[in-house]
Amino acid sequence: MKLTQIRNATNRLEFAGKTFLIDPWLSPKHVLSFVDIPGMPFHVPDPVKENMAMPFYDLPVSVEEILQGVDYYVVTHIHPDHIDMAMDGTVGAPLDKDVPVICQNEEDAAVFEKSGFKKIIVLSREGMDFGAARLTQVPARHGTVVPCGEAMGIMFTSPKEKTFYLAGDTVWYPEVQENIRKFSPEVIALNCSAAELVENGRLIMNDEDVWSVAMEAPQARLYLTHLDNVAHATITRHTMRSLLMARHVEDYDMPADGESLCY
């Protein structure tokens, strides 16, 4: 398999002969802050960050290059740092609506239908085949206090590939441990900027959560993503390296935007 870090949680995955574009947030930099969201439903513990426009960095390559050759879009959940969202409630404006989109539930599917996507696939927890790749929806918990809506993880399996666990927007909790024990993944992608909101607590993993995954899955190589592009993050790539060094976690990759890794 080949993983290419695009930006934030956006990654291109080449797996078992198919190319999946994961959580395609493709907007230019500095287009959205928390104060721009109608009704301001979310608040960052540090109020200064509420006014910081995201994403912080431009895409490393053109949108056309990112979209070239993609067989499926994978959207783990509809949040504005995982897919482009318009004020009219539609999503995915830069995407090719003829490319199938894989999503987590019927509610998200309805949004994609409204947005003009022609083929929408709600991923099951029993698993679905996409050529030689099998994708299975697995649980995720998007918040330590109150989940910030539903989100999913995905297990990618194939006789041709190492098992890949896309944990998605989740914190460490018993279901993540169970996902690892059930599937024994050899590569695990973790969203780990420790982003937090007043209403929901910490939304995704921090260094302690990454350490917990490393302890539970010593056979796996960790792929650390969802870093350095959102205002409510509390950990950067730079600080994560120091934090994991203190915890003696070494078997991980933290790719730069635009960097590709093969497993």
TrEMBL record:
The entry's keywords: Hydrolase
Highest taxon in the source lineage: Bacteria
Record GO terms (molecular function): hydrolase activity
Protein name: L-ascorbate metabolism protein UlaG, beta-lactamase superfamily
Pfam family, one: Lactamase_B_2
Metallo-beta-lactamase domain sequence ranges: 20-226
InterPro entries linked: Metallo-B-lactamas (IPR001279), RibonucZ/Hydroxyglut_hydro (IPR036866), UPF0173_UPF0282_UlaG_hydrolase (IPR050114)
